[in-house]
Design brief:
The protein is an all-alpha fold. Helices cover 68% and strands 0% of the residues.
């Protein structure tokens, strides 16, 4: 059975039934999936562009969204909702995964950093960068020591250990509002001491 000529999904006769185009795509019809791709590409792209600034990354995430959807289309369960919602959920998860991974690695975009002649980084430059990072870490450690124990704990758990406000409040046996206030005051105190040190 061929997909409909119109790119819009029409529901099969009977209330609450899965749209024919989706049923075809779930059964492995690549042409039906291509129609779904054409119908929803702009919406998924718009969603990702609203959250990611790098044009090339947007293209990669859009492609990966549809690739994952194609691989998992047979697991999609029709619940009377828009198919686009499922695609946006996949895109959202990809964005979250990308930014989580970016926090744990130092990204170095070679195309932006190197000219066509390929400049090499000297051992001296590398050493200076490592020294600067170490000094910055030491400065932050000294600023943390100047905080009250509660402020130090709130900042350590919330920002360095990357716990949520709820998890931090639970660990400290305090309310979420109290944790937010401690962290806010602690950061303000650190800013003041870092400004004095500079």
């Amino acid at each position: 059975m061929k997909p409909q000529a119109s790119p819009k999904i029409r529901t099969l006769p009977g209330a609450g039934r899965e749209p024919e185009l989706l049923a075809l795509a779930r059964s492995g019809d690549r042409e039906a999936f291509a129609t779904l791709y054409n119908e929803h590409h702009a919406e998924v792209s718009r969603y990702i562009r609203g959250r990611v600034r790098d044009v090339h990354l947007v293209e990669d995430l859009v492609s990966e969204t549809f690739l994952r959807a194609l691989r998992r289309i047979e697991t999609f369960t029709w619940q009377g909702r828009e198919f686009a919602g499922w695609l946006v959920t996949i895109a959202k998860n990809l964005i979250v995964d990308h930014f989580k991974a970016a926090r744990t690695r130092l990204e170095f975009v070679i195309g932006d950093a190197l000219s066509a002649e390929a400049v090499s980084v000297s051992a001296e430059d590398t050493g200076l960068r490592e020294l600067a990072a170490f000094e910055a870490s030491e400065t932050v450690s000294v600023a943390l020591l100047a905080l009250t124990p509660e402020q130090h704990a709130a900042i350590q758990l919330r920002y360095l250990d990357e716990l949520s406000v709820t998890e931090t409040a639970s660990a400290m046996r305090r309310t979420e509002g109290s944790v937010k206030q401690l962290a806010h005051r602690g950061i303000a105190s650190m800013r003041r001491s870092l400004a004095v040190a500079a």
